[in-house]
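PROTEIN DESIGN WORKSHEET
SECTION A - STRUCTURE
LENGTH: 131
TOKENS:
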């Protein structure tokens, strides 16, 4: 009887956790887009107060930033597509790692000046009031 109740309790816990995980997975349908949360909150506040100049400026700037980020991603993707093969070719063309040229000769380290020997400090005379 004990084993059956433990199995039943374990199955119930697994079912509840699985349902909770499934519900959380459904909430997150769209991928994270930078600036999207700020744009949403600014839009919500603009609906409350449409005459606010600061909110209209914020909305415009957030939209500009989102567009700039998309443009930069597109440019980077184009650049990566074009240069990917060139890098691979250059890597295979090298027989040894000495392609960059000879190493630059560095100046020798300067010798440090030796510390000056200083005379030891004389001990302080004890005061009459101390023991």
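SECTION B - SEQUENCE
RESIDUE ASSIGNMENT:
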């Amino acid at each position: 009887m004990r084993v059956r109740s433990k199995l039943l309790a374990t199955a119930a816990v697994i079912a509840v956790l699985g349902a909770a995980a499934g519900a959380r997975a459904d909430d997150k349908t769209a991928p994270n887009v930078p600036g999207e949360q700020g744009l949403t909150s600014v839009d919500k506040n603009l609906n409350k107060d449409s005459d606010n100049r600061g909110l209209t400026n914020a909305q415009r700037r957030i939209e500009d930033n989102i567009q700039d980020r998309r443009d930069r991603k597109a440019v980077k993707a184009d650049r990566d597509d074009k240069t990917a093969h060139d890098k691979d070719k250059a890597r295979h063309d090298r027989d040894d790692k000495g392609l960059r040229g000879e190493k630059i000769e560095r100046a020798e380290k300067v010798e440090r000046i030796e510390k000056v020997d200083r005379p030891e400090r004389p001990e302080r005379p004890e005061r009459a009031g101390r023991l």
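SECTION C - NOTES
DSSP finds three helices and no strands in the chain.
The CA atoms of residues 21 and 27 lie 10 Å apart.
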